[in-house]
Amino acid sequence: MPDEILKVAVIDLGTNSLHLQIFKVSEGQFEIIEDFKEIIRLGDDIFTTGKILKHSLDNMINILNEIKKICDSKGVSHIRFISTAPLREAENSQEVSEILFKAIGIKPEIISGEREAEFAFLAATTSFDLDDSSVLITDVGGGSAEFIIANRGKIAYKESTELGCNKLRHMFLKHDPPQANEINKLKKYIMDFIKERPFNRKIEHIISLGGTLNNVANVQYKNSSQRSSRVRYVDRKFLKKFIRIILEKTVAERAKIPGLDPKRADVVIPATILIDSLMDICGKSGSYTLSGGLRVGILIDTLNSMGIKLSFQENQYSLRLSRIFDICKKYKGEIAHLKHVRNLSMIIFDQLKNHFHLTDNQRDILEAAALLHDIGNYISYSQHHKHSYYLIKNSDLIGYSDEEIELIANVARYHRKSQPKKSHENFMKLTEAQKDTVKKMSAILRIADALDRSHDQRVKYVKVSISKDSIKLTLSGRKDFSLERAGVLKKKDLFESVFLVEVEV
Amino acid sequence: MRNGIFAIIDIGSSAFRMQINEFVDGESRTLEYLTKSLSLGKETFNKGYISLETVKKSTEIINKFLKKARDYHISKVVAVATSGLREAINRDFFIDYIKKNTGLSINILELYEELFIRYTAFVNEVEDVNELEKNGVIFANVSSGNVALTINCKKCIIYAEALPFGSLRLNEIFKDLDDREKIKAFKKYVQNMLSEFKKILDKKQPKLIFFTGSTVTILRSIFNPKKEEIYLSDIKKLLSDVKYLNSENIAKKYNLQHNKAEILKAVLVSYIEIMELSKQKKFHFSKTKFPHKLLHYYFKGYRKTSLKRYLENTLIYQGEKYDFDKNHALAVQKHTRNLFKGLREIHNLSNKYLTLLEIAAITHDIGYFINPNNHEFNSYYILKSMHIPGIFEKDMNIVALTALMHREKDVEDYKAYFDNINPEDVFLLKKMVAILRVADALDAGHNQVIHSFDIVKISDTIFLDLHVSGYTFLEEISLARKSKLFENVFGVKIEIGKKLAN
Fold first, then answer.
1. What is the chain A residue with the closest CA to B413?
2. Which of A127, A229, B293, B372 has the fewest CB neighbours in a 10 Å radius?
3. Does domain A113-295 have CATH number 3.20.20.10?
4. Using CA atoms, how far apart are residues A105 and A352, in angstroms rounded to an integer?
5. ipTM for the complex shown
């Protein structure tokens, strides 16, 4: 459906929180335009009394009324309201559903644990290229925990288990801070449980959804600009250290840890121990986290059921490139120029690769940077290289690690006149090897960009002839290349200084 | 407007100028207009700094100017400098040296301040401004260093950008090309730079174009037009006439100074490209010179017509670019204004801060567009990069910081961002943030349930009696969380009082 803008709201009533996200969907891409959450902790009712209590219900109705108003004010046309564990498990869920329906006019759709697992999988497909690997996807909620194993993009195993973090807390942690034997029992319970499952070293990556682990990522990234990324990587080393610290603290003390949501201060122990046990059993040194997971999965399911496919599902490009094109479109990039600069960059790279010992990873970074180098123009033309750096770092690229994103942003940063300097913080924080990559790839990008200076794709091919101390670029295509030649001469100095050769055109 | 004799010194990139005017009962008369060529721009744009020799020459010129001013018994002379000095790395040295050796303090005009003065002059000097602006007006200022372009439409700036293809700069970039290739290269280069400008023109095609700045003077001296306008066809003809001439011959043929002859081709190409792209057959220019405008801006006081409207419109235009929630933005602006006006005794801030607060209120959420997570950092980033003629960089920084801290987090969490501003300003900033947080909380649901409020102060608590058209659950939770800073900064609590259905 070209050009049509659709606004879809997903409301998710979970054990810990009531969460609304509104998505804007157009041209096969989606974007979150509203994100609203209130912590409600129905688990505290359910795990102690088996029911949802009146005061919680009143609170829920208040919040839902607000949510409806937000949806109206945003012009939402489709609302999907689902509930996971709390309404699956509460004894009075039938009654609660009725009351909610009466109060706000929408009946919650109670989804099974299996469905929940499928949504988690769908969500993961928006942010990870699952086609060539074997991954374990977990969604640790308050009342249940879902596990999915996906091999080469297909679900091989899925299960909804009782390892919800609030549930485990009520089962095991009676003291504050918890006693050592409580922790040991908890650990043993989790380990015994997951040992029975097909979780093993064949799994290449672990991807964790669910708020609590995302919170741990907040703590790890609290001083980093990656704090707002949708995808982050939590180190096992960090996680172990973090667990050691929280085990000794009371709930009140934990609530003061910067980055940790005080409302999750009690359930964070079982959630982190569970993830750590998974890393242990699969022999992994860390896990990716994905925020907003379940709701994104529900969105895709909703859209697919309406007959709408997202562009990455059409398999036109790999997932990560299709996300990059989405970003280019969002910032009104000149797609023909960007694609051409990317092609020229690749043509030059491939001819330099063997001689200068360049790696495939560097090629990926150059490719992404070539496509994204101009997006900063949206903010303003002046300083747009710096704006590109900022936007790349804050745009949730998919399928690149934080380190790679940092490098892509740096390469784009240096596509114009200025070269890396000691006063540039973004450059100085890199390791020597990373600096080398940034210099080399931006040197190539500068030349490729200069070769499309007319922005009309007149240079079709570049032949690179390498001799001992010089390289020669022979251009072919149509019309005259005076502007392009002048451009290369002006921007070749970085190339000459990092590759130690002279450049001729 | 006072009666008296006033002087302004304009330090441009190719000359120093002084104008002295006498104001009597609203009438203004020019007593002196002095101009002395000295190209600061040439050094600044070529080498990056101004040589000591030129600094000394500048001192001599200024001393002569000041002597003239003393003859008229003028006690205070205002001096402003534009890009020639603005972009020099050693500008602080220059200013200090001049101060020590002549006693004169020089103010550097930021580019967007300069544009704003030119705009204010336009509004004051041209008749039927409103009629003209309705269809859109382009202002182009081609100088040695930059080309500044703005598009105004219905009291709103829909585009403002300074592009680095000033004439001297163009010449420098392509100095190695031969003359024939040069013009082609200028053309292509200028076209690329104008790609964003073109996107705006695709949406809105203004009917008029004004050129300002010293390059207009060059064209005027060549064409000597009878009216304040010059035709594109004449400019094109001139370019083909000079195409094969070197700068010495150009200087001779058109009686130009050498430095002007040198940049003529770059100037012509820039004018032609801008005019062709915007489909204009002729351009207009102002009768008065820049020193004249400065003089009136600083002393006589132009009517600062509807500045507020213009600011608001411009901000909303920017907000729409970032797909903001306009109703929420305007509601928060309204609440901010009402809180500010109703709590003057408590906050003690001057009206200037009301303007800044309103800007922050309109724009506080625009960072959502980049990424909703931690969007306040994105709002801050966008605001820091936004140029609005008439708002100085220092003030924009305050706006950006206010927007940055609009959420309920501890202000100290953002300390790194305001570390380099002075302590009094930090306190002002916290006051502004405290007010904005309350205003934002009053539209927490983004659905304008609260229409207005009355302020009632009872001992140490301020009660807001709300006029509402619905249920204010979210607003109440949000206010409870976001009013802590208010209490810390002002020493009074702020709470919701009565609720009256609208």
1. A258
2. B372
3. no
4. 64
5. 0.78
